[in-house]
Amino acid sequence: MHLQLSLGKETGMNLYEQAFLTLYFLVLLVLCFYGSHRYKMAILYRRHKTKAPQKTLSLEDSFSTFPKVLVQLPIYNERFVVERLIEQVAKLRYPKSALLIQVLDDSTDDSHEIAQACVTHYAEQGIPIEYRHRTDRKGFKAGALEAGMKAQQDYDLIAIFDADFLPQLDFLEQLVPHFTDPTVGMVQARWSHINREDSLLTQAQAILLDGHFMIEHTARNRAGYFFNFNGTAGIWRKSCIEEAGGWHHDTITEDLDLSYRAQLKGWRFIYRNDILAPAELPIEMNAFKNQQHRWAKGSIQVALKTLPLMFRSSQPWSVKYESFCHLTGNIAYLMMILLSLMHPFALRLRIDHGWRETVLLDFPFFLGATVSVLIFFGLSQLEVDAQKGLKRLKYLPAVLGIGIGLTINNAKATLEALMGQQSPFVRTPKWAAGDQTQGKALLSNVYQGSRGLMPYFELALGLYYTLTISYCFQEGLWFALPFMLLFQWGFLYTAWLSFFQAYFLQKKHIKDSP
Question: Catalytic site residue 61?
């Protein structure tokens, strides 16, 4: 604030300009706070990357009696991927006498007929599998998991896979031995991506998720902070779920909610970044935005619900601080909305009062918010795949741009959570990527992501920045052009795909079909 007043006196700014610059400074300060947190994650990762979880014995050597494992497959209208899922899970290596696969089907379309027929087929082959169909969908995914768990009381461990996952056959053999330690409540595997090479959008999504799974999860878990189950590709101890209060459905990220409640109860989590769980990335922008909306809104809901418990707990302040950063990170999208609107007007101040003074505000933003993103996600690519990582660095500008393009979508989600607005659990459409049924999924309109009004606002901001770029050319503001172009591309690219991508995907499939 002192900086703002000093700048005002030295450059002759009026009261309105000082007020504008003060708000601009505060917005940049918040963005720098969350952006700089990525530096911390990168540093923690580098410090603890070699501190892997303690090696376990083989499954046979770990237990005198194998723990009974319930594998839950929650599905809802997954006609294109449900057979693929059940077929893969049916191949999991584990003693059949201690295993039960549970298909929890809340479908309202013909998915339930496909799933039931598939379950019958594998049950006749001796696979321990059962089918459960609900018609009320109470509690959505959390309700389905809770109902399935209560229906099978004598299972010690519960593994969960969403419909778009294809777990490796040794998944249970690798993770179950960690539960020889009675303090371990959950073990999570790292997601990998079966269709990351499909498009620029899937490449950017893969990088975003790699940053979360390779850098954040590893750093938090090995540094002693809280991290979370990601809703799939993990195994829970049943008693841990029960002691934490069970599955709740008052947020739309039931996995994050339960994770924090369980760790506050003293349960220990383990993250295996060397065990991969291949999964499908959304190939269509509206589906991706629906997924991001749910994650952004749910994290703020969980923050409002669990941070008061966290700050009243006996956890170290370092854990409380990290939990605050983790759960409230989507607040940055509200600041990005303000920045997106204010940025062009800040250019006028540069012209009127000299760029040397106002650039003092932009340089910390560049270091805190922009460079931190490049370092954080760049590191994730080098760590995920040392050979291909360098080649994938070329996608980092697209990651920045798509992150900007998601601003309106995720800011809306954050506001809804802060205002207490409830919403149903919206599934992410699955397209059977890489499978022979992908063509049928592309031609079908039944599972397309909801578009809504957001693309119109994204288009408006994209045009707003087009005018700003023209203004930069007129005034010779060459140093500002890279940022303005990034904002313009991000909003226009997101809007364009939201309006037209589904059509072009269908058209391409028809053209490429024999």
Answer: no
